[in-house]
């Protein structure tokens, strides 16, 4: 399956939408999904991606080692080494498709200072 590096414009920004939740390897949720290379547990986090006059929610998979302390909804972050993987499958005779996003880590960003009211 093709992995496509996501190129971001300098004006692109991300904000934490939800706290990370564990990703599971089985439907019964008894085994954590892990990174094939490092063995780190994988988590899914919803980030709001904003660019110019549009915004959308993206679910991004990040290894536990790439999640900074202090994550909470509303904080600005930047995914590092963000890749998109298109996928498709047939389930019960119906085609499902989408894009899976994966980042090596999230960097916390310092919010811009509020402009003082004059």
Question: Can you put this structure into words, describing what you see?
Answer:
The structure is a single chain. This protein is mainly β and 118 residues long. Helices cover 0% and strands 47% of the residues. Strands 1, 2, 3, 4, 5, 6, 7, 8 and 9 form a nine-stranded mixed β-sheet that branches. Strand 7 and strand 8 form a beta hairpin. The protein is globular and about 50 Å long. The mean pLDDT is 91.
Summary tags:
mainly beta; single chain; nine-stranded mixed β-sheet
Task: Give a nutshell description of this structure.
This protein is an all-beta fold. The protein is built from no helices and nine strands.
| Element-level helix/strand string | EEEEEEEEE
How much of the residues is beta strand, in percent? over 45%
User: Helix count, per DSSP?
Assistant: 0
Shape: globular
The end-to-end span amounts to: 55 Å
Q: C-alpha Rg, in Å? A: 16 Å
Give unreliable regions as ranges: none
Largest sheet: 9 strands, mixed
State the total count of DSSP E strands: 9
Overall mean pLDDT: 91
Q: What is the share of helical residues? A: under 10%
Q: Structural class of the secondary elements?
A: mainly beta
